[in-house]
Design goal:
The protein is α+β, with helices and mostly antiparallel strands. The protein has a single domain, classed as Pnp Oxidase, Chain A. It is 17% helix and 32% strand. The chain has 5 helices and 13 strands. The model has no long low-confidence stretch (mean pLDDT 95).
Length: 207
């Protein structure tokens, strides 16, 4: 089958993308508004960019029914900072509670029963329950699309401080089993990294 995004509704395109780009890591992004109100929300278009400087990106879409911007984006634009918390299965259900588009004066930490922690270098809180958190400064925001429902943004941030739980470090490396992260699939489905295989790659090609 062939699908042309110019001839189908963006919601159908969205289904094709989230069903194809799997599994997706989840950025649980915590911010504070310019008035000091806390916000936390999950985003599954998320990945690393480079390591020097350590840089990440995530993509908050505009709201699907009216094209408005999400509170996370507004807060980052105002404060130029945010925290990314890696989602472990131990608090996955609480994370999902934060995926609803609440009014901007609602604190999702309270709604979901999660615990904010003060960060060291930024005013945005980090998540106490997270085994890994990144304190980030905004690099840039890239606007994608025509500013209507289905459009979105790429938020690029520089990690200025890593918070890693001692218990997930084994022999100087992050142990994925102890971190127990989850990945996003389509619909209401998530995945665990419990069935892994290894392929050895060469650092340099043979001459």
């Amino acid at each position: 089958m062939i699908f042309d995004p110019d001839t189908i509704p963006f919601k159908e395109t969205h289904k094709l993308m989230i069903g194809s780009i799997v599994p997706r890591p989840i950025a649980f992004v915590s911010t504070a508004s310019k008035d000091g109100k806390n916000n936390i929300a999950p985003f599954s278009y998320f990945n690393g960019v480079c390591s020097s400087p350590p840089t990440i990106m995530f993509a908050p879409a505009r709201r699907g029914w009216d094209g408005s911007e999400k509170d996370t984006l507004v807060n980052i634009r105002d404060t130029k900072e945010f925290a990314v918390n890696i989602v472990s299965e131990s608090f996955a259900e609480k994370m999902v509670k934060c995926s609803t588009d609440y009014e901007s004066d609602v604190d999702e930490f309270i709604v979901a029963g999660l615990s904010p922690l003060p960060s060291e270098k930024i005013i945005s809180p980090r998540l106490s329950e997270a085994k890994i958190s990144f304190e980030c400064k905004l690099n840039q925001i890239v606007n994608i699309g025509a500013g209507k429902a289905g459009s979105g943004f790429i938020v690029i941030g520089t990690i200025i401080l890593f918070h890693i739980d001692d218990n997930v470090i084994v022999d100087g490396k992050i142990d994925v089993e102890k971190l127990n992260p989850i990945g996003r699939l389509a619909g209401n489905w998530y995945t665990r990294p419990t069935d892994n295989f290894k392929i050895q790659r060469k650092i340099k090609p043979d001459k």
